């Protein structure tokens, strides 16, 4: 029960009539299974949208990460390098295979993996004769990582890259869509992402045989036989045909969603840009960020309150805001894992706040958010 103003969510789903029509079509066709014509079409259309030849629709981004790591051969005892500043799913999948994550700090200019730290880490790993089995880069909050130096370094050491682009569908790096800057690219259609199927994911690659293998593993590893025959351990990771129908409708409006999210960011910058001690997540000049979430950092001295004061003031007005991801090296579950650096990610967590960023936000709602932030700064 709440008779105050309507709640403003951080990043709610944004559905349209096309999604409803496609879903109804899938329902009526009775393809209510983790396969069917919408799954095939969604894969084709998605692959085209991110300019990769192959895509496999899966039940989540986490499932896609898990399969990608398995396909590059990660196993027990291996190390996998991963961005420190990310959502835990990037790192969880490493542990599913019995491997250990090693975390690399963020670059302050992009909030993504620092390519110089990556080079340091791989150089030392090579000297110890224990290279990691893979590197997971993350395109954080809708901004591409700096892939050219990352890929050059990984190529030099022969370590495959998996690009976790779960937060960055629609973003570009040097004019090309994200998700293509590694052996595998991973996307998510979780309910809070820029487009959603309520839950779902996509694995993309240049390697058609590897994606065939991914589909096989994702469908309980059923060998070709009339009976149920299994020569490998499988998973139940395929996307439902119903949800693929929703995904097709969402994909049609991706560019509008990107424009709306960037519009939110522009609004906040216009309305809050003058506040001392409040800074926006920088946009690197190498690409287009989608601004999936508008993130700010707050210097408590200069702003006149810390990010928690702002978050709580927003919550009191029934507005959802969230701290920036808590770095992996500070998570209790990863307390034993190695980290290179970590100070920048920790600072971004301490000061960083994600403002409501949904693509369906109205001007009045944005104004409500901005008004609360200004009030905390003492400049209403
Ligand atoms: C959302 C997200 C994932 C996980 O995707 P799911 O579809 O929720 O499993 C992985 N990595 C990052 C960076 C994410 O933000």
Give a concise summary.
With 380 residues, the chain is α/β, with parallel strands linked by helices. The chain has helices at 17-29, 37-49, 61-71, 89-96, 115-127, 147-157, 208-218, 241-252, 254-272, 300-303, 307-316, 343-351, 363-376, and strands spanning 54-58, 79-83, 100-104, 134-138, 161-164, 172-173, 176-177, 184-188, 201-205, 278-280, 294-298, 322-323, 339-340, 352-355. The chain has 2 domains: 17-253, Aspartate Aminotransferase, domain 2; 255-376, Aspartate Aminotransferase, domain 1 (Alpha-Beta Complex), CATH 3.90.1150.
Output the keywords.
alpha/beta; Aspartate Aminotransferase, domain 2; Aspartate Aminotransferase, domain 1; four-stranded antiparallel sheet; binds pyridoxal-5'-phosphate
Describe the structure.
- The protein is of the alpha/beta class and about 375 residues long.
- Helix content is about 40%, strand content about 15%.
- The strands form three sheets. Strands 1-9-8-5-4-2-3-13 form an eight-stranded mixed β-sheet, with helices on both faces. A four-stranded antiparallel β-sheet has the order 10-11-14-12.
- The longest helix is centred in the C-terminal third of the chain and has 19 residues.
- It binds pyridoxal-5'-phosphate.
- The site of pyridoxal-5'-phosphate has 14 residues, from helix 3 and helix 4.
- The site of pyridoxal-5'-phosphate (PLP) has 14 residues, from helix 3 and helix 4.
């Amino acid at each position: 029960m709440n008779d105050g103003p309507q709640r403003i969510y951080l990043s709610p789903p944004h559905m349209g009539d096309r999604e409803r029509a496609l879903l109804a079509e899938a329902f009526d066709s009775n393809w209510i299974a983790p396969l069917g014509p919408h799954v095939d079409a969604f894969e084709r259309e998605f692959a085209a949208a991110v300019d990769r030849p192959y895509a496999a629709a899966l039940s989540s981004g986490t499932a896609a990460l898990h399969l990608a790591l398995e396909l590059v051969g990660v196993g027990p005892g291996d190390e996998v390098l991963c961005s420190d500043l990310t959502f835990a799913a990037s790192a969880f999948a490493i542990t599913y295979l019995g491997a250990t994550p090693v975390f690399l700090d963020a670059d302050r200019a992009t909030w993504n993996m620092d390519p110089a730290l990556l080079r340091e880490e791989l150089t030392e790993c090579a000297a110890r004769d224990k290279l990691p089995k893979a590197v997971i880069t993350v395109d954080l909050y809708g901004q591409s990582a700096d892939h050219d130096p990352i890929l050059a370094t990984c190529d030099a050491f022969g370590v495959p890259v998996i690009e976790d682009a779960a937060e960055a569908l629609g973003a570009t790096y040097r004019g090309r869509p994200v998700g293509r800057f590694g052996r595998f690219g991973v996307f998510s259609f979780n309910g809070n992402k820029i487009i959603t199927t309520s839950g779902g994911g996509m694995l993309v690659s240049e390697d058609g045989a590897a994606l065939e293998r991914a589909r096989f593993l994702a469908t309980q590893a059923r060998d070709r036989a009339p009976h149920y025959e299994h020569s490998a351990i499988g998973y139940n990771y395929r996307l439902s045909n119903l949800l693929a129908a929703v995904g097709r409708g969402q994909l049609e409006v991706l560019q509008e969603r990107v424009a709306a999210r960037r519009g939110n960011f522009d609004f906040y910058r216009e309305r809050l840009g003058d506040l001392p001690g409040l800074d926006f997540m920088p946009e690197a000049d190498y690409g287009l960020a989608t601004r999936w979430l508008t993130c700010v950092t707050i210097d408590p001295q200069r702003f006149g309150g810390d990010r928690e004061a702002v978050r709580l003031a927003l919550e009191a007005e029934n507005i959802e805001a969230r701290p920036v991801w808590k770095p992996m090296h500070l998570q209790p579950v990863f307390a034993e894992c190695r980290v290179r650096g970590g100070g920048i990610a920790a600072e971004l967590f301490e000061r960083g706040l994600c403002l409501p960023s949904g693509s369906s936000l109205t001007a009045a709602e944005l104004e409500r958010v901005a008004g609360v932030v200004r009030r905390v700064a003492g400049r209403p």
